[in-house]
């Protein structure tokens, strides 16, 4: 009798993917002082975590937060950019503006941008290309709604978003990118997608990337899970072979909790 093999995270290809976890602060905290306090507590709690860490502060706080985290292992992120370079676009922020503040990673396609700010796939695709052109790394967020999940449309919705949002992105660029699978029904609801379900979707996404590009490219892309991740759910999620990190909202506003998520077991 041969015992069934225990699930193991690293294979040769997987071992090369360093875990990466981001804290999306969204429209929090509400003052510069509070943003500085949060940045300090995240920096203290992150330590030398196994996962590469990113913080995504609101635009006005990117510079000051960058100053606080500059000597830590945390990376600076931006929650969005507009796809034009400069000009008469009141209220908009360009790729070069955030790049000049030290930003390395930029979110594109977050479900709150898609629904509240009407970012469609064409605009998201332009943003992805502009982020890359600007020398930064896109974190492309995709995911299905509750209705789509219930109708068993999760994989087809994600596949369409992936294809449209990555149009014109080269294999070399997609290799360094991050995809965040964020089921809309799990965001801010306390309902974490069961880790086996998330693993199945991540595996599907990697296969889709392999069909759009090639297997080596697909194996290099880091795919994050996002949606109500907490210190209680992170360890099981991170034990899944195709889950390479998390994109965290609510729990990233607490330095200790986010530190624990970065230092998963
Ligand atoms: O939208 C998210 C991260 O981008 C997830 O938010 P929550 O962790 O609050 O569910």
What does this molecule look like?
The protein has 265 residues and is of the alpha/beta class. It has a single domain (18-262), classed as Aldolase class I (TIM Barrel, Alpha-Beta Barrel). 43% of the residues lie in helices and 14% in strands. It is built from 13 helices and eight strands. The chain has helices at 12-15, 32-46, 62-69, 95-99, 111-116, 121-133, 146-150, 154-165, 171-176, 195-212, 215-220, 231-238, 255-262, and strands spanning 20-24, 52-56, 74-78, 105-108, 137-142, 178-181, 222-226, 245-248. It has an eight-stranded parallel beta barrel with strand order 1-2-3-4-5-6-7-8, surrounded by seven helices. The protein is globular and about 45 Å long. 1,3-dihydroxyacetonephosphate binds at residues 24, 110, 182, 187-188, 226-229, 247-251.
């Amino acid at each position: 009798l041969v015992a069934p093999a225990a699930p193991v995270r690293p294979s040769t290809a997987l071992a090369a993917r360093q875990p990466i976890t981001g804290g999306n602060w969204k429209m929090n905290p509400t003052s510069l002082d509070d943003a500085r306090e949060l940045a300090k507590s995240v920096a203290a709690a992150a330590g030398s975590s196994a996962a590469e860490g990113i913080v995504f502060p609101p635009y006005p706080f990117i510079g000051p937060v960058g100053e606080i985290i500059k000597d830590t292992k945390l990376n600076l992120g931006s929650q969005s950019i507009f796809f034009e370079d400069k000009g008469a676009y009141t209220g908009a922020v360009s790729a070069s503006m955030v790049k000049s503040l030290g930003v390395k990673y930029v979110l594109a396609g977050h479900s709150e941008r898609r629904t509240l700010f009407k970012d469609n796939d064409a605009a998201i695709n332009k943003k992805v290309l502009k982020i890359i052109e600007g020398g930064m790394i896109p974190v492309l967020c995709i995911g299905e709604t509750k209705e789509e999940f219930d109708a068993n449309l999760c994989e087809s919705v994600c596949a369409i978003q992936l294809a449209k949002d990555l149009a014109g992105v080269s294999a070399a660029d997609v290799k360094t990118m991050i995809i965040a699978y964020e089921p809309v029904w799990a965001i801010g609801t306390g309902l974490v997608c069961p880790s086996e379900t998330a693993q199945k979707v991540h595996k599907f996404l990697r296969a889709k990337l392999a069909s759009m590009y090639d297997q080596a490219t697909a194996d290099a892309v880091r795919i994050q899970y996002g949606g109500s991740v907490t210190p209680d759910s992170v360890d099981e999620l991170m034990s899944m072979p195709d889950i390479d990190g998390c994109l965290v909202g609510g729990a990233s506003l607490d330095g200790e909790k986010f530190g624990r998520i970065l230092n998963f077991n």
